[in-house]
Amino acid sequence: MAGLRPSFDVAIIGAGIGGLALAIGLLRQGVSFTLYEAAPCFSSVGAGVGLGPNAIRAMELIQPGFHELYKRISSGNITPGKDHVMMDAMLVEDGLGERRGMRPMPYGAPCYDRTSAHRKDLLDILTSWIPGKNVRFNKRVKRLSQNEKGAVIEFEDGNIVAASCVIGSDGIKGASRGAVLGDRWPEYVQARYTGKYVYRSIIPMEEAMKILGKDVDGNEIAGDAKMFMGDRCIIATFPISKGTQSNMVCFRPDDQPWSHPEWTRAVSKHTMMQDIRKLGVDERLVTLLNWANPLQWALFHHIITPTYYNHRICLLGDSAHAMLPHQAAGAGQCIEDALVLCRLLGLVKDPSQIEKAFEVYDGIRRPRAQKVVKTSQEAGDLCAFQVPGVGSDMDKIVANQAERYLWIWLHNLEEDVDRAESEFNALSEEARSAAQPTLVGIKTASAALVA
Ligand SMILES: Cc1cc2nc3c(=O)[nH]c(=O)nc-3n(C[C@H](O)[C@H](O)[C@H](O)COP(=O)(O)OP(=O)(O)OC[C@H]3O[C@@H](n4cnc5c(N)ncnc54)[C@H](O)[C@@H]3O)c2cc1C
């Protein structure tokens, strides 16, 4: 770990996966930081989260040793020989497709290891690396502004602090996105409703197995990750918590604009069950909702983000590129952001270089992350039979699924880091040369003075 540089300090807003990954990275780079979180403690809410190989590699590059710890808390498929299967495709309809003689259709890749974890377990690993003295809880940001020295943060408790820069990792609804885009692109500040909401459920694995039963090959349906597909309806189930629980995400299409003031809407259990039942879903899947909190979670995304920074304020994670979860790639993109940004901030020698670091970060991370946002929407359309020319053709859907993740998973992160470092050094060199008059320039200036 390098020595701390007190003259340059970073304020990180939000202690989700993105903010935590960045904090760990800055710690290792010896960059001074404070992490401000609105909640009274590190969050324990949330359900299952799966990390792809890119996400695991990015986190391992930020903090060596992560992968070993992640293995201890994550779960794969239970059936032997299915380590590299991301999901088995089945149908949501009555009979799950088996009445038509369909077998589960696996897709994945040799580079991919099937893993999902309970979000709390993942956050526990990340927070274990962050010293308490760097974290302030109960600090909800109300407003961000900038002056010639850096950024100024105003909290809802009335407190005001200054920092050399702010990294807004405050999620899809945070305050930082407005501070970055508000002046120039106000139309892109608010996230857009994707026309779907989800119900989420965590079921004891024993119960999930009893309810779903075995497939035609004799394997437990709940034991391996499943993507049940149907006309405008998708349900995913996968093991978490070392295979002791099954995580379920039930996507419900919605033609209306989201009108509720909150992004979650409590409904009765009966309404929830009927809401899914009327889509023609196999009753076994409806039964799994018995363990769900009857809450509709509206899904929003940032399909367009014209820039990730504005002077000394920079976006990271969902505040920059919130996406639909159909490629299970959102957290991975947060961690990739954190990897590139922590390495760049580690190169900054004085605060005047911060904006250059952000410029390089934006150039490397934004095209890739925004492409993941766009393709996540397409993946949702694909599994919900909404892609023209593909429709409900399961062979085509599964072939597409087998190909579509490779560019995300196999991305060369070391190359991103190298590119970030060389672009930053080149920009800094340019700035130094521009600031120093050349010998010829000095001679000309002296001659002019003499004359
Ligand atoms: C149903 C579903 C399933 C998903 N599954 C996967 C998956 O399998 N794999 C995957 O990679 N991704 C998945 N994702 C996406 C992933 O969860 C997110 O991309 C990721 O958690 C975002 O992390 P973040 O740190 O950017 O934001 P968040 O997790 O939203 O954290 C933001 C933090 O900022 C704090 N905050 C907010 N506002 C303020 C404020 N004004 N002041 C101070 N603090 C503030 C919040 O309290 C919070 O702690 C899924 C998403 C959903 C909805």
From TrEMBL:
- FAD-binding domain ranges (all copies): 8-375
- The answer to whether keyword Ion transport applies is no
TM ranges are: 7-27
Keywords carried by this UniProt record: FAD, Flavoprotein, Membrane, Oxidoreductase, Transmembrane, Transmembrane helix
Keyword Oxidoreductase assigned to the entry: answer is yes
According to its UniProt record, in which pathway does this protein act? Secondary metabolite biosynthesis
**GO function terms (MF aspect):** FAD binding; oxidoreductase activity
List the PANTHER family: FAD-BINDING DOMAIN-CONTAINING PROTEIN-RELATED, HYDROXYLASE, PUTATIVE (AFU_ORTHOLOGUE AFUA_3G01460)-RELATED
User: What family is it from?
Assistant: Belongs to the paxM FAD-dependent monooxygenase family.
Instruction: Please identify the protein, giving its name as recorded.
Output: FAD-binding domain-containing protein
Which species expresses this protein natively?
Neoarthrinium moseri
